[in-house]
Amino acid sequence: MKHLLLVILFCVASSTIISQPKSGETKPSIKKEALPIKPAAYRTEVYLPLLKGKRVGIFANHTATIGERHLVDTLFTLGVKITKAFGPEHGFRGEADAGEKIENYRDPYTGIPVISLYGKKRKPSAEDLADVDVLLFDIQDVGTRFYTYISSLQEFMDAAFEYGKPLMILDRPNPNGFYVDGPILDTAYKSFVGMQPIPIVYGMTMGEYAMMLAGEKRLSPAANERHEYYKRASNSRDTLFHFQIIKNEHYDHTSKYVLPIKPSPNLPDMASIYWYASTCFFEGTVLSEGRGTNHPFAVFGHPFLPKNMYAFTPTSREGAKEPKLKDRQCYGWNLYGTNEEVLKKIDGKIQLKYILEAYKLFPDKENFFIKPKSEKPTDYFFNKLAGSDALMNQIKAGKTEKEIRESWAPGIAEFKKIRKKYLLYRDFE
């Protein structure tokens, strides 16, 4: 039983270590414009004492850095005993294509066994965790429902709670954490690109999102039950000994955090990251979403669109060996620009006008959306991205952006009430 609880009696005046807040309670931070944002991983003085003498299993990828160095490499040299590493989509060092399945291997830099959670399985097994005392999670999210790292987080939390392994999350800022928008996912359309009934842009950091999963009982039945047990066992300032969040410093939900490293091969810069929520829909259509170009998700189009539009040709390259419409000249849009230009165009909401205009211009509307063999609405990839078949039907029916956005409003309002309970940082509204 003693391995189930990591008893942490470590007080920090600034509430650096955070667990589930009381219902209705938020923990705002003081905005400090002049101070640089510091991700939790940089705050080694806070969490290293909690890892001392523990066998650590770490879920991370190439974005888990301190400066220009991988977190695992830093911890390794600091004497932290890492017995197991776990990697998500794109791999532990972030070198695999989108969707590419990865096998287990030993990290060539440290010799640590790496278990792939984007191949034959998506959560650690009891055997994987047999030599682990504490689990550490550190990965850079981009803040959209269909970006699979939050799905990986959920599976990892399930395993941690089910097998009684204390979990520490090193939080990182959300580069799209300054707004909330999009349709709410219908759970009939649940998949790895959308596991929870949340909007496309949910405005939470990984730490906040993790607290919502636990607090709203959205984990597996066994994980939820174990979490409730820990809550009943807790007796020190509502701290959940088995679940800890290390906060960012000087971050809040008005911040426009610029990532120091690309989070995945096809999000190479902030323009792509900002446009991703609006243009990832094209992955469910026959149009190129820009993979195989210098600006994925900021460039998109098709050979059948008017030839007076922006011309580009997707080619094979790192992270997109076989892009859609490879080596074919396409016509469409180029939305690339400076961070300030892109943020002004996005204006704090998903931009629907491009998918609506592309559908109107496309001559073969019957084949605009990629059809699954079954032709079931739940099997369309576009619907998995959107969260239901409502958006597809609205586009086909010629609904305006205003009408579509009005249909989202009630769901967004309800989600914001839930979201508010788990915020660790000052909100944007």
Quick overview:
By secondary structure, the chain is an alpha/beta fold.
Explain this structure.
The chain starts with 16 loop residues before the first strand and ends in a 9-residue tail after the last helix. The chain has helices at 44-51, 71-77, 149-162, 206-215, 221-233, 270-279, 339-346, 353-361, 381-386, 390-396, 401-420; strands spanning 17-18, 55-60, 65-66, 69-70, 81-87, 105-106, 113-116, 134-138, 167-170, 243-246, 299-302, 310-312, 330-334. The chain folds into 2 domains: 2-258, Rossmann fold (3-Layer(aba) Sandwich); 270-411, Aspartate Aminotransferase, domain 1. The protein contains 11 helices and 13 strands. Helices cover 26% and strands 12% of the residues. The radius of gyration is 22 Å and the shape is globular. It has 429 residues and is an alpha/beta fold. An 8-stranded mixed beta sheet has the order 1-10-9-8-2-5-7-6, sandwiched between helices.
